Input
Amino acid sequence: MTVDDRRSDDAPPDEEAVEAAIEEAGENGFNAYVVAREAIEAQFREEQRMAEEADMSLRAPLHEIFTSIQGEALFAGMQQIFIRFCGCDLGCPWCDTLDARVEPPAEVWCQARPGVRGFTIPNPAAVEDVLGVVKRILKHDREHAIHSISLTGGEPLMHPEYVSALAATLRPLELPIMLETNGQRPDDLQKVLGMIDWVAADYKLDSSMGRPMDDAARREFLRLAQYKRVFVKIVLTDQATEEELEEVYAQIAAVDPACPVFLQPVTATAGARPPGGLELIRFRAIAMKRLRDVRVMPQIHKVLGLK
Output
């Protein structure tokens, strides 16, 4: 059937009705645009206010500030500025940032450009000092290669007031801010949600941790994170079971079946080994019964030899 044939089978349109529908759609579209624009402007004003009122003297223990290629999950392959916090409330056996779990250093190591000699700032680090380091890094980014800022750890939400103040001062730099967290601290997440763009929830399995995680806290955390853009990363060791993964998948699907989920085989350490390739295929297949966007992805920065 040609286009002309198809049209000849249709009843002729009511021109007045069409014009009325177009006019109504135009009005509704304009109103929706105005409402959206006003909401964006209100949010921008609120962010400006919070940036102006942020307590620049707040301090928190940091481990390092540098720029490199993100090697995990949704932003893998993108260059980010990493602000790494000291301290952790879980202590994963496979942790690849053990230095960030011990006593905070007297100074925070910083690097303005990959491959150049670093410098330091006093620790605990003041919000104002961290802002200065980030601006120094961006000054050298003449190509505008840096995609976003990652607040990582350790566990940043052990210092929620500081995270909120720091993120507020970083907002005017117009880079997306990603919070990487273990997904177990919903009350603290609530304190920082207004100032971040992305939540990277790093789920831990009971089998790999050797103890039960707080499922109720994790569900509430993911529910709150829906107010922002969120994705989930699940580190898999050779101890992972189909049964516990089914439960975790069900928890995520109950909140948002479209939430991106990354199955990350652990980088082998003295205390952990990754599952085999066939197991990873099966674990993903199980997830696809409930979830829509599930990917298997190792730590690519390890392959590249980067931090």
About this structure: Confidence is low (pLDDT under 50) at residues 1-12. Residues 3-52 form one domain. The longest helix spans residues 15-53. The chain has two domains: 3-52, 60-304.
